[in-house]
Amino acid sequence: MTTTTVHLVRHGEVNNPDRILYGRMPGYRLSERGEQMAQCVGDHLADRDIALVRSSPLLRAQQTAAPIAAAHQLPVSTDQRLIESGNRFEGQRMGHGDAKLSDPRNWRWFLNPLRPSWGEPYREQVARVTEAMHQARAEAEGHEAVLVLHQLPIWLVRRSAEGKPLPHDPRRRQCSLCSVTSFRFVGPHLSGVDYAEPAAHLVAGAVDATGGKLT
Predict the structure, then answer these.
(1) For an engineered disulfide with 118, which of 5, 109, 135, 192 has Cβ 3.0 to 4.6 Å away?
(2) Which PANTHER family does the annotation name (predicted)?
(3) What is the pLDDT of residues 76-97, one digit of tens each?
(4) Angle, CA 81 vertex, CA 78 and CA 82 arms, to 5°
(5) Full set of structural domains in the chain with CATH
(6) Quick check: 42 pLDDT over 60?
(7) What is the DSSP string of 89-128?
(8) How crowded is residue 142: how many other Cβ atoms within 10 Å of its Cβ?
């Protein structure tokens, strides 16, 4: 049977001066540092046998996919299944902002962290991204495919593939900005998962999706 690798790439740092949870909101583009990160991941994958590059419809993912596709003279196609997870607090400031846990108006959204009650169910995210990943695997069979998307869906798909519970501590996610989580298949069967951080030297001081700074 043929071997195929599907790389799930997280987008780079976003220009987010107001430090809000932007989620699926349109127009959020990469920062200057994010563009450098995207080039790093493009260089990292330049020598790989990439036959397909596909992205979330959101601008930050499309921009991250561009240098990867350019290195292989490929177009960037869009897949709605790769979009960011839905979140009730989209457009709000996290932590000490509008979405703070201490505000009684928000308590109803924190009732079930295992689902989670504040956003798109974990299982639904796994289902849609896994479906997109297997379609890409079939289309790029015998080669490699790149899907550019967002941290939480990537991390959930990895946990699912490794047989781990989907509820987790967000602080322990191994899915840094412009990281590459690679799923290796033999035929249609998963044979292993690898992880790389080609933009690791740029992460310190970057702003994450919730507006907080990374160390």
Answers:
(1) 109
(2) BROAD-SPECIFICITY PHOSPHATASE YOR283W-RELATED, PHOSPHOGLYCERATE MUTASE
(3) 999 999 999 998 888 887 654 5
(4) 70
(5) 3-88+121-202 (3.40.50.1240)
(6) yes
(7) TTTS--TTSTT-TT-GGGGGGGS-TTTTTTBS-HHHHHHH
(8) 10
* Strands 180-186 and 189-196, sheet pairing: antiparallel
Give the alpha-carbon dihedral of 199, 204, 207, 210, to 10 degrees: 100
Q: Which residue's entry shows tokens 């959020």?
A: 28
Does residue 53 register a pLDDT over 60?
yes
Q: How far is CA 99 from CA 15, 21, 40, 55, 188, in A?
A: 20, 9, 33, 29, 42
* Residue whose C-alpha is closest to residue 153's, from 108, 191, 120: 120
CA nearest neighbour of 177 among 140, 144, 215, 130: 215
Cis status of the peptide bond prior to 116, with omega within 30 of 0:
yes
Give alpha helix (H) positions in the chain. Answer: 32-44, 59-71, 122-139, 151-161
Interatomic CA distance for residues 39 and 41, integer angstroms: 5
* Mean model confidence pLDDT for the chain: 90
Lateral strand order in the sheet of 180-186? 76-78, 50-55, 144-149, 3-10, 180-186, 189-196
Global pTM reads 0.91
* Region label for 81, one of left (φ > 0), alpha (ψ between -120 and 50) or beta (otherwise): alpha
The answer to whether 182 and 195 are in contact (CB under 8 A) is: yes
Per DSSP, the three-state class of 70 is helix
